[in-house]
Amino acid sequence: MVQAARGNSGLSLAVAAPAPNPTLRDSPAAAVAHGADLLSSQMLAVPAYFRPGGDWGRMQHASAAVGLAVLNPGSGPGAGPEAVYTEAVRASQRAGLRILGYVRTAFGNQTISPLGQITADIDAHFMWYGVDGIFFDEVSTDVSLHPYYAGLRAHVRERRPHAITVINPGCMPSESYMSVADIVVTFENTHTAYTQELLELPDWTRRYPQKRFWHLVYGAVTAADMSHAVVLSRRRRAGWVYVTPCGTDIDVDGSFSPHPWCRLPSEAYWAAELAAVGAGESTAG
Description:
The protein is an alpha/beta fold. It is 30% helix and 18% strand. Strand 2, helix 2 and strand 3 (66-71) form a beta-alpha-beta unit.
């Protein structure tokens, strides 16, 4: 996941990689055949990489449909606590949102993100902002690094036993990675890619509830694109989803987006997304 501008500079359990499994096709015929497995309700989970203000308020106001939000003051907790974030987190929690603190792992490259920095970022999120869990970004899919990520989850649990742990490899990892997180982001890419990828799901994904999977789709320019992405996410058993028209350059409205998560969509688009995702009662939490 693209980061915001950075403001600050155990025991693990190895699990063998599972053998290749059959796949569940995401075709119309498969959708009918596996109708009982299709997700009829889900919730939004927003990478809120923007400062508290108008967009944060709109997100908080939609807490009936938004279950999770990622706090990211500076590609992590930032250089020090900021009252504006503390107040926003507390208000959002009172409204029913669960807030996750962003922590970069650089795909396990400790030259870029040393273990000491990662654990310090975890601790700072809990101490400064009282977050409900941790969102680990740039997560490797290398099975040999599974013990490393298991150790990070163990550190989270030492600090907050009931905290939520999310990992974001941005693609489908080995099943072994399901043991190191409560929720796994198995897709983060453009709407175009979303229509072309994940056409087949590993059969092992059906052994887990939909609330264990999160999809992030950007560059869905129109409300029709967004609605299409939401439909696909339900077929693909994602209990958590977020779709945005924002990209990584100039958006359709002419504004510049340094990354897709720098703001919420327009009022009309956001309202349409809330309606699309909130079509049924949520069972994702």
